[in-house]
């Protein structure tokens, strides 16, 4: 009996913690989204129930469409480039050469820095007048006049996405590198003996065997990218004219800018649903590939 | 033959150095700007090297950001302490006891890491407002722990599962309880996992911006991330001081890379792939 109590004693803190710090906030976010919850509600405790009005208001807001599209573009472009560049680097670093280990770990630095710092650095690089990007492009004659990277509605989203890709490359590289290490070298040796070139070896061995790890990386990348807040806030705060507004930054400005916490909560819940949908798709795809594998063997 | 391999390998190192140079250029550019006099940053063409520069930026950074840096240290250390206090017993229990609901708990820990931070901030704001702790170190420590606890439990458990049960059983025969076994048998052998969990908890809290800017709306206990953010807004001309603050704020990550390389690698892959 006391042994049982001891066991409960070990698990109780984490159980209470999960309920208090994840369960309760999640539930309160759902109820908050169904109330007219404003700054005054915090003082008066008065937040009238409005059903799905907050959601209707969010969907009806013209910014919603912009934010949704920006989120999609930002996420897809970030994932595609982070993954492709990360994979190329992982394949490259699989070769043996002096300083390999040291250089590989130095490359992690952008991923470990506070995102606010990375954002700040990119803001300085993108600076219209004194930023190194414009200065180099001007002096090499690529552009004729300065590009307002962060102030123009047509390029701001690209600029923000590039900064985010830079942040994500090391993470992709490290995990994919780990996945590559798990592929038996005999397979490559056998393929070489059969006369398969590097590209053929990549498409026939590396790519299929790396699939599970690729799925994990893309899934985690998706979850991280949907959450991205710091980089956008530091670079553009969602502007100019909502050109870089994503669902995350919009939820922030609804709650903490307009003090419309109900609408902010509703937008946040949409983000959760989005993340969940992809999580389920991912789980299903891994299960299917596992099943296919079993059939094959 | 041997010479040819050596040349080829040296050539690869050169390529790798170029890759590192390109990818880390933004960081070089930060260090470069932090060491320039502020007037030099408004010159065209830019000064490519900080040689002959100044520490003015750092002086201003420490003057203006000293307090925020201290706040960040307090919050990060607090987060690590709180996180480990909750996670170590939990990981031990999840790795040793066959209790119903273990699977559900592990799945929950994986899932909660996917909740967007803005959702957490939104509802924690309401909760902490009720508790009257908004704008305190405690509020940020608790909020930052939500980033660190799930990760810590998962990585600690993944390690403790690999510790042979005989280690604890021997002590149990001698009459030691679970608390004693955890403290004097399991913890010492799990040192690396504990260090990894602690280091990442520190980094998560140190880098947090979202909670710091939302749960602390009047900036009473501004950590350095918010400090930099306000700094850019206020002094767009003093890029050297802004960049110097950025360099100082990057020191924990840099130390990690140098001093704790293997723990970092363990953290990156462990958190993502185990289970």
Automatic annotation (TrEMBL), chain A:
Membrane-crossing segments per the record: 7-27, 72-93, 105-126, 209-226, 261-283
GO BP annotation list: transmembrane transport
Transferase is among the record's keywords: no
GO cellular component terms given for this protein: plasma membrane
Gene3D superfamilies tied to this protein: MetI-like (1.10.3720.10)
PANTHER family reported in the protein's UniProt record: BLR7065 PROTEIN, SPERMIDINE_PUTRESCINE TRANSPORT SYSTEM PERMEASE PROTEIN
Name recorded for this polypeptide: Sugar ABC transporter permease
Organism annotation: Halostreptopolyspora alba
